[in-house]
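Team,

Forwarding the record for the chain on the shared tracking sheet. I've put the sequence and predicted structure together so nobody has to dig through attachments.
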Amino acid sequence: MVGISLLKKDDTKVISEALKALGKENFALIIHGSSFPSKEGEDTGFGSFNSAAGHDLIDYASQYFNALQLGPAGKTKSSDPSPYCGTIFSGNPLFIDLKQLTEKEWGHILSEETFKKIVAENPNRDKGKTAYSYISISQMNALKEAWNNFKNTKLLKKEFEKFKKENDFWLSNDSLYEALSIENNGDYWYIWTNETDKNLLNPKNEEEKKLYKSRIEEIKSKYADEIDFYKFCQFVLEQQNEETKKFALKKGIKMIADRQVAFSDRDAWAYQSLFLDGWYLGCPPDYFSKDGQAWGFPVMDPDKMFNKDGSLGEGGVLMKNLYKKMFKENPGGVRIDHIVGLIDPWVYKAGKKPMCEEGAGRLYSSPEHPELSRYAIARIEDLDQTLEADKEKRVKTLSDEQIKLYGRLIEKIVIAAAKECGMDKNAIVCEDLGTLTNPVDAVMKKYELQGMRLTQFVVPEKPEHPYRCKNITENVWNMVGTHDNLPIEMWAESMINTHEGYLHAKNLVEDLFAEADNKDDIIVRLTQDKDYLKFVKLTEIFASKAKNVQIFFTDFFQIKDVYNRPGTSGDQNWSLRLPNNFRELTPIDLNALLKAAIISRGKGFATKHAILIEKLS
């Protein structure tokens, strides 16, 4: 069915020509899986790129974009909808499109009655919001019904067995955890009362190894069906994901995955022997948090990441397998959330705050620390000791060899994994927002990694701020905001008739209207007219030199609502979806923005592209 907002081929071609003229190689729509819309009568309470509506959005997006930046796709906790706490290997069963399981291709293993009941009882049906607690239970009940019917058919049996065999290195652990969660009445292993179950994959001696092996066999026997059910869900998801990937590529859309810095509870249990005992990953105190951010995520033990000869240790092999799986499944590449956490992580002691005075420090940059010094790459003489340990510029000098050591995880694991999957470092998108430590900055430059520039967060008082248009370089991804920011319209509203808004306006005029005769008039208009400020701020990302541009779905579709409010939890957060009638929404005027971006480059550039400007008008 042709949607009412479908562009003509000529319009799509003009947009493509304009992006190329501006030096844009990639233009990506940011939308997390749960935010995908549903078709009428198919809204179960959670979005999925695998659904008919998901494919419809991909088709729609192909008019403008050549990539979709997705969110983390791991299995989330029953009590927390945040995708950034998901599993590193297992996919989220909530992304399984139940409707397909009611159809012939899947042998009708799910009844129409069950599917319709889930849709009918969805408390947020057709409201543009997920219903996380509701669908978490309803989806699994429906999949259980599908599993029971699947067992009694010959459908895809060979494919299922092949999937289990090929993915056993992670599937066995994750499904065992599912069985233990049933055994221990909860999927949060830290509060299990059975100490043996807590440590089944972490024996400390031969006696424990023998005991744990016996316990594993007992659990596998007792919960054989539940374990196979878990594997079945992962199999169905993988089958549907593959079909979506093929569909997207056919439409000229690359899917970019998102690798969060965190490890889920399930992963922390399975690989606890590879983590640094008693330490967690977080952020030091800053403007937004005076005590720092205590994330509670386990930290990979450096001694387990690499052997003394520089080869990959057990932890390094695990991480490389993770990235190989991600690159293999996502031809558009992988976005790495919080790249600082891979290169120069801030760690703090269990039970303490992530503050210097409570023993926190940078894992590889604390040669003076009584406990972390053994992992230090920076030496005492490399430090500016007038600065506290949490200051970004504290490491003042680095040799080429030290930079290589800071970057070895990137080089030997991430880049190596990409190459083995037929990609290069340009398939890596590094979330490096915020102020970077000198070691991180040095690694980014050495390996020419693509970072991010978020124009909404420019500090207007600083002429050389890296997020300002005139300072944005080619080898980055540029955007006005991500999933953590206010939509650009709400940001623009907050700037009207304020001194900060005036500073932003002044910079925008200097960068985008350098040849204008009425600069003062433009500044006044930008400080008073939120719609014009929004337009110019969006123009900025196309006018910059950045080769890659991303735009969050709320900004593109002009939705005045927030997806994530950092620091909050519960069903209301991470719940915003693209409305089911998204084709009826009025997206940003991309033609006008691209035209303005071309004109902002100056009269010479505009004259060269005069015909293109006319086409965009």
